[in-house]
Write a structure and sequence with these properties.
Layout lengths: L26 H11 L14 H8 L5 H11 L6 H6 L18 H7 L1 H8 L4 H7 L4 H11 L5 H17 L7 E10 L4 E10 L3 E11 L4 H18 L6 E4 L2 H8 L7 H12 L7 E4 L6 H11 L3
Parallel strand pairs: 1-4, 4-5
Antiparallel strand pairs: 1-2, 2-3
Length: 306
């Protein structure tokens, strides 16, 4: 099995740091190695939280887990808004596509954007939004816990997600030609399924396909392979590609940025960058998973086939 793993012949051999996946020594990895050798407990992310009441209230609300995770990401400013993607060098500018002038921070897209305001205006939380729309998202959530009746909190959280989705959908125009790619892993049977859906606009499916591959590595390696095979499929099918969409933000930031190290993943990322030379006007974009459901269904179905 090990001997069948293909090795990239292009990079020259070099010494690597074996205690980090990048192959490059960092202060962080060296510290953790030294701590482990000295039998010292490493720092933990589970330190006491100053927002304990808020967290406890959130996780006990009768709402879907995806809403809880969305809220958690919003609270920590970890949503893929334009400002965050700009800092990751995924986008060339941080400004909101709909307002024009303001940077699209998490606070802006969920509270103060014109589209977000429209959502809040037609909800039962209109007055709360009017009173608190000029505060940061953390303060907005904290005030919500204290001022909104407990029985209404399950409705309060999904409105934040809906205001985000309404902005994302408008990125795709009616004539946008885009490929959505996805990968699904089945470690039990050691197989990977890849799914590809080519659309014009948000809903018109032109064609689709799936690929069954032996072996199951890690999600980002599988997504990388999906990107390479997806571009190859577009070439062989003579499909004009304007955008490629994926919900793997980590891979998007690596491909669109200047990331490079001595890992195998770095070689794959370089190949993806080179493959886009076949479509000079195309670009790789991040989209949340709910807009990539068709490709994910194909990938999952393919991974479950015998």
């Amino acid at each position: 099995m090990v001997l069948q793993i293909p090795i990239d012949p292009n990079p020259v051999d070099s010494l690597i740091w074996g205690f980090h996946q990048s192959g490059i020594i960092t202060i962080n990895s060296a510290y953790h190695l030294a701590s482990a050798a000295a039998n010292v407990t490493s720092p933990s992310s589970s330190d006491p939280n100053p927002f304990k009441i808020w967290w406890k209230t959130l996780w006990t609300l009768p709402i879907p887990p995806k809403i809880k995770h969305f809220t958690w990401k919003a609270f920590n400013h970890n949503l893929p808004c334009a400002l965050n993607l700009f800092h990751k060098k995924v986008l060339n500018e941080p400004f909101c596509h709909f307002c024009g002038g303001d940077p699209e921070s998490v606070t802006h897209v969920l509270i103060d954007c014109t589209r977000a305001r429209r959502v809040w205006k037609h909800s039962k939380f209109k007055n709360f939004h009017n009173d608190h729309r000029r505060v940061y998202i953390k303060e907005f959530y904290l005030q919500g816990i204290h001022l909104i009746p407990k029985e209404d909190l399950p409705l309060f959280q999904p409105i934040n997600e809906f205001s985000s989705q309404s902005s994302v959908k408008c990125i795709i125009q009616e004539d946008t030609r885009a490929l959505s790619v996805a990968a699904a892993l089945d470690h039990d049977n050691c197989v990977t399924g890849l799914g590809f859906v080519f659309k014009i606009g948000l809903h018109r499916v032109v064609t689709s396909t799936k690929i069954h591959k032996p072996g199951a590595s890690t999600p980002i390696f599988a997504e990388s392979q999906a990107h390479l095979d997806g571009i190859a499929w577009c070439l062989s099918s003579q499909l004009k590609l304007e955008f490629m969409f994926t919900d793997c933000l980590n891979l998007v930031s690596k491909v669109n940025g200047h990331w490079k190290d001595q890992s195998t993943l770095s070689s794959l990322v370089l190949k993806i960058r080179h493959s886009f030379s076949n479509f000079p006007d195309a670009s790789l974009k991040y989209f949340p998973r709910q807009f990539n459901a068709n490709a994910h269904s194909l990938a999952k179905c393919c991974s479950e086939e015998d």
